[in-house]
Request: fold
Amino acid sequence: MSPVFGTVLQVFHPNSPQARAIFDLGVEASVVFAAIFAIVAGIIVYALMRFRWCEGEADPHQFAGSRAAEITWTAIPCVIVVALFALTARTMNVSDPAPAPEPDLIVIGHQWWWEVRYPKSGVVTANEIHIPVGRALSVRLESTDVLHEFWVPQLARKMSAVPGHPNHIWIEADKPGTYLGVCSEFCGTEHAWMHFIVIAESQPDLEAWQRAQLRPAARPAGADARRGLAFFEQTSCVTCHSIKGIDDGARVAPDLTHFASRLQLGAGIAENTPGNLRRWLADPQQIKPGAKMPDFNLTDGQLTQLVDYFETLK
Amino acid sequence: MTTGHFVVSGWAWNGASTTICAVAAALYVAVFGVGPRFGYFAAALAVAVLTLVSPINALADGYLFSAHMLQHILLLLVVPALLILGLPRSLSLEVRPRVLGHPLVGWIAGVGSMWFWHVPVLCNAAVASRPVHALQTVSLVVLGIVFWRQILAPREQERLAPPGAILYLFSACVACGVLGIIITFSPVTVCSIYAGQPADGFGLLQTIRSGWGLTPERDQQIGGLLMWVPMCLIYLGAIVAQIARWYAEPVVPATGQM
Amino acid sequence: MSELMTGAAGAGLLTPLRREHWAMAWISTVDHKRIGILYMVTALFFFVVGGIEAMLIRLQLAVPRNGFLSPDTYNQVFTMHGTTMIFLVAMPALFGLANYLVPLQIGARDMAFPRLNAFSFWLVPFGGLLLHFSLLAGGAPAVGWFSYAPLSETPYSPQPGVDYWALALLVLGIGSVGTSINLIATVLTQRAKSMTLRRLPLFSWMVFVNSFLVILALPVLNAALVMLLIDRLLNAHFFLPPGGGSAILWQHIFWAFGHPEVYIVAIPAFGILSEVIPVFSRKPIFGYEFVAGSTVAIAFLSVLVWAHHMFTIGLGHTVDLFFVASSMLIAIPTGVKVLAWSATMVGGRIRLDTPMLFCIAALVQFLLAGLTGVSLASAALDWQTKNSYYLVAHFHFVFVGLIVFAILGALHYWFPKMSGRMLSERLGKWTFWLMTIGFNLTFIIQHFLGLAGMPRRVYTYADLPGWGWMNMVSTLGAFVMAAASLLFVWNLVASLLHGKPAGDNPWNAWTLEWATTSPPPVDNFSRLPPIRSRRPLWDDANPDRPDPAVGTKGKADNFVPEKNKTAVLAFIISETAFFGVLVLAYLFSNATPQPGPGVRDLSMAKTGLFSLCLFASSFTLWRSECSLLKGSHRAMRGWLAATILLGGIFLGGQGLEYWTLFKGGVSVGSNLFTTAFFTLTGFHGLHVCAGLIALLVVLGLALTDDLTRRPSPALKAVGLYWHFVDLVWVVVFSTVYLLPHLQ
Reply:
């Protein structure tokens, strides 16, 4: 079942002080813009209604301009601009304060998934971020390949992940919930499916999640699952994916240690169910054409074993 | 020292600048009397005082590169313009040899002075050494006058026609803007004397770094940006004035022969 | 087909100048009117191509998780759609219109340089061909129309599509610069005697100001493109972080072009509105001086705002805020125009013919676009709306809502002049309503899609609440627009065949193009009316209440520079922009020390020697010009030959330096220093080559006495270019060889 995001116009449903600051400015600015639109459109509509040409009419008085009007409608916009500028400066400070000296979270953009690392606790995961309700986390954004952009409309401004130039963003939620994030800078074939989820939960729930994430992968019990693990270790899977306790090293592809605990797979392209996982392993290119994971031509038996194994990685 | 305290006490009334301004005012009144253009001249002196006597000057003296840049802009673009505007409309600014009156000379004077004084070794020297600093101040005003003469000379014939003036100003803005870009985005320090430890005569360094949040990197960014957007806005203002001048020429009756 | 030809012939469009086949006549034409029409027909063709691409995009996005187009295909389609619409539709259409109208509006016979005009035009189909050739050569580029690095670099886009894209844009950019140089020279030197600069119709004035923007901005793009090509083809790293380069550098350079570019296409549209709205309100434009002046302010400010496209790249609040300020400021002169057009209508006698309908819609749609633009200028708001469908809506409101609508209005307005026949008013009104409804249906809802969180450039999307039906509405709107476009093409063809004869001035307009036949004869005018104000035909028709005369007493009014010198100076301005970017890139690339080859591997002494030769060649060229003026032709030839020799020595020295470096194992891609060094000095060397060729041509002309039989500006013009190339070397030499010693 897809996580229910509920809201339609996400930017209008801010759930953090940072996003709310931007929303408030948006409302103030919209009022000004609506007024300007109404006035100018009003003038045009008035002219269209009142000053139409009739058959046989001579040309009207050739009024060529009014300096008073010009000065007025230059001065008033100047004032509006100064006001908007001041409001913008203030909102920028509130919605994007300076970073903490050390980041709480490091998010690294790859083609086409998000690597998530918590330096202080050591948690490593992918495409899913857990944050405590009511406390802002300082996030460092990086990229290993091309430009990406980190955007959670309900929680924060968007910020680019630039290779060679780490950026920073604060992320905070004032209510528990699941928030959708997307990559908003075109980054290649599967830019459309580079989603991530931000889950805001209470501090106890977050700590429980953290503890679970820090446990190394359990050795599986079932026969199929054990064969799945053996297969994983012996083939080239380990070149890209790492599983803590089994093979820690590769960072090219998402860390799979607690793969089954995540809500989605393929960076949002499908729900994380055994059925979808099987379809993915059978041919990733069918689901996410262009993804860097090739088709391994796995047999039915191998698929069953792998799916069984991965389902143990909670 | 707190900001408020500094704003009140940071004025250097007892310097050479005050004397020179006073003498200049006296000379002007003696030669031209208090005519209709005296307002501009007084404004020029007021800005000069603001630049050279007020706390801005104290900040530029080793604390903040951006304050130095502000001084630069005021001395090169604002004071000379107001000075020329303050001259009686009949005064001729004709120079000998004639080639010095060529627009290209004025352009190079205005743009070149900005570039020249930001060569790192010269920029540092102007802060470190009093004579070089005085030379810088005087040169900026003089070269500024040479620059603005092309646009604001009292006599119509000595000025560029508005279309030419617009090109002159636009290209000057681009040329200075390029320097502003270089300074803003340069990873190296342009005027290293500001990044080091100044002789903290006012005890203001702590306030600047923590209270105002101005690290040397941000200070240089602001300095470069000042040379870019606000400075170009001054040029834009001049351009708009030229357009107004051009289109406001007296209307000739329709029956007149053109 | 032959019926079309007969109809068009009847309309006077196919009357051959001499007894030649009509196709040859059109291919070889140098007549600005025919070239203008060629531009517009080309633009129309590519509008259909780009429109089909748009339909493909909307079809793919109509429902969530659609499988109509594969992701790679979709990415190619949207890249081509953007590139085509801007470079192969908007710019050619507007330049074509300018080509047709400017000489007529200023009372001239033709453009200042008819052959340059034709050459500039033919670069458009050639560029279009080059761009689309990528489809046959491994696939179209799939990197977006602004081709951000590192995605557009070889590791992430190995196919040659991006190379074709870059080459095509280089070609197109050269054509645009050529046209703009021509327009500047034409407006400054070809005006009718009493058509002073202050009496120019606003369309011509705006195109004139716009041309300066073109010659400044397009070379910046050219510099970015050559740097990208050098990265891709010569293993360099200008924009690749692993090699020391910067992805942000690409954005700076591209947007320093890109933002002026959107004004380059908007300003002529403003010009169209400034012509049509007064005529159909039966009143002069409200505040001509302010509209003309605000154009200059907009052109000026447009080069100061580019980093508002980069608010999320991490430049820091300080830098961001300056660009917020400049971007908001540009709204003020723009607002002056919008209010001027609105106020023109107040107190008028408005006739709602098709041209006016399109222009009123353009005005209202641009009002909305301008306001969403100001919201994007606020960095904080931009942080939510940028790169979402809100932004897509904003720029389509500018490109389509203002520019396409203005072009449609212009075509309905000036088609009678160009063909001698009226377009069908009935079909025109149908086109208008379909287009307006379709456009607004397509794009208003996209604002909300963006606010719902839909990012741009996605080939599909998840089935989130609202996303499906909003996208469907947008797609339906696109179909309505497609219908409108087809109707318009039908109108064009049918009216060419059967349209009502138009007469000289069907709209009772007031500018000079209406003072001649429809279509105009080859030389444009048999006689010109007296020109005392901005509306000569109004004065003619209303002797009881003519416009107040606009004076000729200013210095600039009667200033007519020599056209070759003007063209070369304009060209020099464009080259300054190009070299300026390369010098800045060099400084940026060498700001911090790097391993590998450096300045110490260069020989300042040897290069200094060869530089002296180059500087001496400026002296000898000056002597040659003096000799020509004095009439001593042998001396002139001698000094000219000396100039060529000295220039050749310089090139030889440069070649020697390159060879020494190559022998030492240094290549273009060794490190950022070598890349920047070879790029900067290499392009300078290319310009010296070009200069030498030009000088050789002049020498050849001198040897055959062609140069001296009648006063020829060739030596002076080429001389200006040569001195400029020397000046560039002063800057390059100082930057590369001298600057390290100053630190």
Summary: DSSP finds 23 helices and no strands in chain C. Residues 183 and 208 of chain C are 7 Å apart (CA to CA).
